[in-house]
Amino acid sequence: MTRRMQGPRSMLECWWSGRVLDRYVEQQPAIPLTPAERDRLERHLSVCERCATSATERRRVLAALDRLGDQHAPPPASLRRAHDLVRDLTDGDPA
Amino acid sequence: MAGRDGKEPEGPPGSEDMTPSAAPAQRGEATRAEAFARWVEPEVEVLLRVAHTLTGSWSDADDVVQDTLVRAWGAVDRFDGRHPRAWLLTILRRTHLNSLRRGRPDLVEDDVLARHRPAFGAAHASSPEQVVDDRAFDADVAEAVGSLGEQFRRAVLLVDVDHLTYDEAAAVLDVPTGTVVSRVSRGRSRLRAALAHRRPRGGSR
Predict the structure, then answer these.
(1) How far off is chain A from B195, nearest CA to CA, in Å?
(2) From A58, A64, A82, residue closest to B69, measured CB to CB
(3) Which region, left, alpha or beta, applies to residue B204 given φ > 0 means left and ψ of -120 to 50 means alpha?
(4) Digit-coded pLDDT (tens) for B82-94
(5) pLDDT confidence of B99, banded at 50, 70, 90?
(6) A57/B205 Cα distance (integer angstroms)
(7) In chain B, what residues touch A81 (CB-CB under 8 Å)?
(8) CB contact under 8 A, B191 and A81
(9) Interchain contact, B165 vs A28, CB within 8 Å
(10) Alpha carbons within 13 A on the beta-carbon side of A19
(11) pLDDT tens for residues A5-43?
């Protein structure tokens, strides 16, 4: 369970948390968090309700985008045409 | 700097290299065909997904991917075998740009936006308890994605929907990786702002 943080130090941690949360919640960040950063963030999330909510919100949006990817799957006919072309190119090598 | 349409390629390491001096050792025809199939077959689905993200329709994605495959086959002797996905995505980007230059009306940007929205209309969820809520949320997310500016939408779709790495998305968009990181971050931020009315209840993880 989270509880509210107060004071300037918590504001600084919230600011820092906001900057690194994306890297925390996504599976393949461009720059992964270091173990120390991850530990610091998780400690903050355990005591800051607002940042924990933000993390939950980010995860939820990413999960929804991931589900959109399922609908973004190519139609079987498109896949078949592309694979057929690869086979045609490699079988009947015109070069 | 972003968007250098029409400029000479500067692809990622191992990507398409048009300089004759970079040609690898001679390959037999059978080896050439075998290598091409090995590099390309696993990437066909990704190519179609990315082409769909760029064009907004499966029929246009089909055309772009078919052209991409033919061009890749023509350039395979100059490919060093490293990073086939990046190589193919670079060719796909150029193929798409060429198709835009040919002025095909079905590839105009406004149409892309319009066609993206219904593509994301339906939704499904894996958790029975959240089916109804997730469906409504997915529809809201789809609408919010469709409302993003072109640069942000493409970056978010490539990374968060098509699951390209940031480097691969950079190859598709012909921008530095850092630019993709920035666009995805800002795109997500705008999505969250657009979805503020759907904030989850409670704050615990």
Answers:
(1) 9
(2) A82
(3) beta
(4) 899 999 999 999 9
(5) confident
(6) 10
(7) 62, 66
(8) no
(9) yes
(10) 8
(11) 556 667 889 999 999 999 999 888 888 999 999 999 999
Distance CA B141, CA B99 (A): 30
Integer Cα distance of B16 and B144 in angstroms:
35
Q: Nearest-CA distance from B155 to chain A in Å?
A: 12
Report chain B residues whose CB lies below 8 A from the CB of A93: 29, 32-33
Structure tokens given for B88: 């193919």
- Domain architecture of chain B: domains with CATH: 26-105 (1.10.1740.10), 108-198 (1.10.10.10)
Amino acid of residue B3:
G
Q: Is B139 exposed, middle or buried (0-12, 13-18, 19+ CB in 10 A)?
A: middle
Asked if B77 and B27 count as a contact pair (C-beta separation under 8 A), the reply is: yes
